[in-house]
Amino acid sequence: KKGLKLDTRFIPGEGNARDLSVDSNTGTLVSGRSTAFDGNSDCIDCGVGVDPTASGSSLVAWVKPGTVGSGGLSSILESCGGGSSRFAIGLSESESKFYVTRFWSGPYGGHTSTTVSAGTWYHVVGTVSADGNTIALYVNGVSMTEAYGSNKSASGTAVTTIGRLAQTDSYYFHGSIAGCKVFNTPLTAAQALELY
Q: 49: exposed, middle or buried (C-beta count within 10 Å: 0-12, 13-18, 19+)?
């Protein structure tokens, strides 16, 4: 696929997330040896991030939440280009909704219009334009974005993480994550559906 920068395949027992994209950004499991994340300390550091302000970005993952209905925010997949150019998809456990957010000037996110259930697999795609003015969230190939939030800014180094926010030791995801992909371009609705 054009613009594919990370395409993980989790290899049970190997302790890594092998990247099948041309960039070979194989990640190291920080804690644990599977795609099951405990919500406390498990995450995968995939190394180099993609700068979403350069040409836009898309984040893709299969997700099975372990907890919904209580708790805070958790990060599923985040890619950072350094500085304030950060982009993430995650789960608001208290609202039982997936969210997409970006961390540079202006309104910063959206969440699903319907709630999600624990123990069910979902295909989640978040996209953002380079200027940050267009954000979309697709669940199981269907556009489900409702705007929320206000200005938000944060800074950090260039890195991609699975299962928590890249720049903090928090926002850990509880559940299972598989088939993560990072693109350096915003996918269209048709492309999001094709990946599903």
A: buried
Whether the CA torsion 80, 172, 151, 129 is positive or negative: it is: positive
Contact between 171 and 71 under an 8 Å Cβ cutoff? The reply is no
Query: Rounded to two decimals, what is the model's pTM?
Result: 0.82
- pLDDT tens-place string over residues 155-177: 456 678 888 887 777 888 999 88
CA distance 24 to 39: 27
For the cut 80, the answer to whether the pLDDT of residue 181 exceeds it is yes
Least confident of 7-21, 103-117, 132-146: 7-21
Over the stretch 15-26, which tens digit does the pLDDT of each residue have? 555 555 555 555
Q: Are 152 and 75 in contact (CB under 8 A)?
A: no
Distance CA 77, CA 39 (A): 14
CA 180, 126, 167, 182 torsion-angle sign:
positive
The larger pLDDT score, comparing residue 103 to residue 90, is at 90
Q: Which residues on adjacent β-strands are paired with residue 78?
A: 88, 161
